[in-house]
Amino acid sequence: MNLRGKQKRFLRSKAQRFRSKFSVGKNGLTRAWVDQLDGALNNYELIKINLQQNTDVTPEEVKAYIEKNTTIQVVQIIGHVLVLFKESDIEAKRNISLQVKAI
Questions:
Q1: CB burial readout 75-103, b (16+ within 10 A) else e
Q2: CA-based torsion, 61, 56, 19, 78: positive or negative
Q3: Is residue 71 within 8 Å of residue 41, measured between CB atoms?
Q4: pTM across the whole model
Q5: Structural domains of the chain sorted by starting position, each given as residue range(s) with its CATH number in brackets
Q6: Do residues 34 and 80 touch, judged by C-beta distance below 8 A?
Q7: What is the mean pLDDT of the chain?
Q8: What is the pLDDT of residues 60-81, one digit of tens each?
Q9: Helix, strand, or coil here: 80?
Q10: For position 46, what pLDDT does the model report?
Q11: Alpha carbon distance 53, 89 (integer Å)
Q12: DSSP letter (8 states) at residue 54
């Protein structure tokens, strides 16, 4: 699903009150980390991740890696925090994506 501007604004407003669920540390980006991230997005659809101070990657590198290797979309980058969205593969967990499609 390609997100339009209004949909991204809606997701950003939803994610504003969230806390980060994942972080990128000194190990950087690995396939196992991306698989865990993908599994979490199947449950939540919208999450925040943050980059720790000891990481060697930039937020732009994380965005490029995630979007290249998965169907996850980066909605927003603020400093070292990224907001990620993916429509859940589990139909019963598609609450946010149904709201996004209605916009």
A1: bbeeebbbbbbbbbeeeeebebbeebeee
A2: negative
A3: no
A4: 0.87
A5: 5-102 (3.30.110.60)
A6: no
A7: 90
A8: 999 999 999 889 999 999 999 9
A9: coil
A10: 93
A11: 33
A12: T
